[in-house]
Amino acid sequence: MAEERDGGLGDNRMRQLLEESGILFFALSNESPRRILTLSGSVTQITGYESEELIGKPMEDLLHADDWAEDTVDHPSSSLSGDMRALRIDGSEVWIRVSSRLIETDEGTQTVGIGLVIDSLKRRELVLRKRVESDSLTGLMSREAFLDRLMRELDEHDHTFDPDHVEDEQHIAIAIVDLDAFRQINETLGHPVGDEVLRLAGQRLAALDDERVVICRLGGDEFGVLILDVDDERELARIGSGILEAIATPTILAGVELQSRASIGISLADEGATSVEMLRQADIAMYQAKSNRTGIAFYSETTETMTTEQLTSAARLRRNMEDELVMWFQPIVDLWTGETMGVEGLARWDHPDRGILTPADFMAAIELGGLAERLDLWAIESIAEMGGLVSRTGEPLQLSLNVTADGLRSARLIPRLKRLSESGGFDLRNLKIEISERAVQEDIMSLQPMLLQLRELGIGISLDDFGTGFSSLTRLRELPFTEVKMDRTFVSRVTEDTTNEAIVRSTVELSRALGLQVVAEGVEEEATSRAVAAMGCTMAQGYYFGRPMSVTDLVTARMILLADAVVQDVG
Q1: Which one of 29, 49, 422, 437 is at 20 to 30 Å from 106 when CA atoms are compared?
Q2: Is 344 among the residues known to form the active site?
Q3: Of 227, 229, 307, whose CA–CA distance to 267 is shortest?
Q4: How confident is the model over 442-472, as pLDDT tens digits?
Q5: Which domains does the chain have, with CATH numbers?
Q6: What is the DSSP track for 523-570?
């Protein structure tokens, strides 16, 4: 027995010296399973087992299953090496670094080697590796580890790609998931709440029930999703919808109910695709989804062209917004008297090369460049300044202004309004803030506190484009609206079919029952004006009453009316 245990170990004096240093000696058989032929006494110090207990047992019984490579078991001709976890008698684990080689003995080929305890070193290494491979805030895979995994998957995909059977190929895709309005959460509720929103989003993404999906945090409020073995864009759209649904689940943080929204850009790998190129494409698609508010967008060359143009516009607006944007005004009239009771301020871009542009031409660039809040604050400053000028030409007008959800969530909105009121003499009771029905539907809970603050300042609140989001007015009673503006889609066709007539009539009746003023948008013909007036609508706006005009034209028109009134009084 002693001879068997000594087999292959060579010089006993060398063995004794190394044992005293705590180094483990072993010899293994080369048939499967690989049984322990010899173990030095240091195994007791390392594992708690006596060497005699382990002689004859499979080596894999002494090592963690994840570290005992299958090829080592199935192919005994290979040597054993690497970092492995030895199992202690108490069930705990200790890391050892193993090195071995095959030798020929009288009993045949054996694996002879040594093992050095590296537990402290290995655990520090694993901690450092985890810091590199995982995101410290969310615990998800890090950007670096994600890109490494993506490169390996793309390389494997290229090696297995069959150009003769493209239709049968399964594809690799990546998605960039960007949380909408995250900056406003940080600004209004603080960074600790923002961090919790990111952690929660990470948990929800990690919980997706799809083994083909690999999740990481790319940085900031962006997450990366690697999607393996997908058939087509339809399947990707389904996965994307599941991501949006998971993120949108409401939660209460800091006493506020929050419902996160996200925009997703998806890139599907072509043959020869690189990780850098796929990330760039997914980023472009994500910005397209964000600017169009579609939730999900796929990369295409057309998308890239559109996004490039929008990014160019966004860059110019970032540099020159206050110099190149101007405020135009469209009258809002009393349907019974024909008198102009107010005006809506409408932003226009006086572009040096393209002329006067409407928001339809540049709002995508505003959204893409993250400039919505800045646009809204500029618009409030502008309408306050112009309102003072216009009011000097007659009775003060009600000034309406559409503000985005980003603008309403801005921590600077209320202080800016108070400053205009206190130092600029702007009467906030003459201001009416409009917010689209769709924006309210998407974020009703987080907008409610800001709308209440606006009402406390005496500012009117108008629900704009009512009908496009298919809300219930009774549901919207929870918010402090003072006015409803019916969308032009229904108003312009009110004389054409009974369905639109019924929608407009019921909206007017319910709004009046709730004590809300009703404005009909998009009135372009006399017949439409008469029809909505007959239904009880008192205010209207549209080309029939006047097109949007510059402040100069508005002041001129007001001065003419004032002069006519003076002449009539004198006469």
Answers
A1: 49
A2: no
A3: 227
A4: 777 678 888 999 999 999 999 998 876 555 6
A5: 2-123 (3.30.450.20), 136-299 (3.30.70.270), 372-568 (3.20.20.450)
A6: --SHHHHHHHHHTT--EE-STTT---EEHHHHHHHHHHHHHHHHHHHH
Give the residues across from 100 on adjacent strands.
113
CB 348 within 8 Å of CB 356: yes
pTM summary value: 0.62
Active-site residue identified among 3, 196, 521, 524: 521
**What confidence tier does 5 reach under pLDDT thresholds 50, 70, 90?**
very low
d(C-alpha 403, C-alpha 347), whole Å: 11
pLDDT in the model for residue 2: 36
The more confidently predicted of residues 227 and 166 is: 227
SS3 19: helix
pLDDT number for residue 528: 94
**Rounded Cα gap, residues 569 and 551, in angstroms:** 27
Q: What is the DSSP letter of 134?
A: B
Token pair listed for 499: 């369905």
Residue 40 burial (CB count, 10 A): 23
The answer, yes or no, to whether residue 478 has pLDDT greater than 90, is: no
Residues 340-389 pLDDT 10s: 899 999 999 999 999 999 998 999 889 888 889 999 999 999 988 887 67
* Residue 131 burial (10 A CB sphere; 0-12, 13-18, 19+): exposed
| DSSP per-residue string spanning 180-219 | TTHHHHHHHH-HHHHHHHHHHHHHHHHT-S-TTEEEEEEE
Residue 71 burial class via C-beta count within 10 angstroms: exposed 0-12, middle 13-18, buried 19 and up:
exposed
